[in-house]
Design goal:
By secondary structure, the chain is mainly alpha-helical. The protein has a single domain, classed as Winged helix-like DNA-binding domain superfamily/Winged helix DNA-binding domain (Arc Repressor Mutant, subunit A, Orthogonal Bundle), CATH 1.10.10.10. Helices cover about 45% and strands about 5% of the residues. The protein is built from 8 helices and 5 strands, in the order αβααβααβββααα. It has a 3-stranded antiparallel beta sheet. It has a two-stranded parallel ribbon with strand order 1-5. Helix 4 crosses helix 5. The radius of gyration is 18 Å and the shape is globular. It starts with a helix and ends in a 25-residue tail after the last helix.
Length: about 220
């Protein structure tokens, strides 16, 4: 069942750790119970962030992003953990609004979970010693998950398949204002395509696609 494909694709972590104006949102346009929200709105709060920055909880969240939705038992098998462990940590993630029930799967004996997107847009989270460790743990997890997803895609790549894909990198000399403008425009394009398919029944032949947008200054080039 892929009923909620688009929401699942955009149940993602958005990071924009600058002092400038955040870009247009590319994740869900609302946050669960107001705890956190899309980029440009309220950022994840420190208590929730610390709860999220647990190795197994981050792994559960990443696996839900990859699958779209899953039960605690399915996640336990995928991560080689006990279902008791995955159930407990899923409930902790739910408590802080990072996961929720998948409405496409109801009435069964097991709960189906899906990830809820959130943002880290407040630079103070990284400056504050009480939260900087959690922020760094989450960012490292995001980077590692992206590398793993790209590696898995390439390892399974079949040149005879018709699936579209793009792996691209560009290096530009930009002012901060120019970089901000480009980031905003890139996110607007992504959101336009997301809005076009959000909430629809997934057509035959559709596959889950991951979209990464990374804009950052290269280290050692000041």
């Amino acid at each position: 069942m892929q009923r909620n494909l688009c929401k699942e694709i955009y149940a993602k972590v958005s990071l924009h750790m600058t002092d400038g104006k955040p870009p247009t949102a590319t994740g869900p346009l609302e946050g669960p119970r107001g705890r956190f929200a899309a980029v440009g709105q309220e950022s994840v709060n420190p208590t929730a962030l610390k709860a999220f920055a647990h190795p197994l909880r981050m792994a559960l969240y990443a696996e839900l992003q990859r699958r779209g939705s899953a039960t605690a038992s399915q996640l336990a098998r995928a991560l080689e953990e006990s279902s008791g462990q995955t159930s407990y940590h899923l409930r902790q993630l739910e408590r802080h609004g990072f996961v929720e029930d998948d409405p496409a799967h109801t009435g069964g004996r097991e709960r189906w979970w899906r990830a809820v997107g959130f943002a880290m847009t407040e630079p103070a989270l990284l400056r504050d010693p009480a939260t900087s460790g959690a922020v760094r743990a989450v960012v490292r997890q995001v980077i590692a998950e992206r590398a793993a997803a790209l590696t898995a895609w390439f390892n399974a790549y079949d040149p005879d398949q018709a699936d579209d894909g793009l792996l691209s990198s560009s290096t530009l000399a930009l002012t901060p204002a120019e970089a901000e403008t480009m980031t905003t425009e890139l996110n607007a394009v992504l959101e336009r395509h997301a809005a076009a398919v959000r909430g629809r029944d997934v057509p035959e032949g559709a596959r889950r696609f991951r979209v990464h947008v990374d804009v950052f200054p290269l280290a050692g080039t000041d």
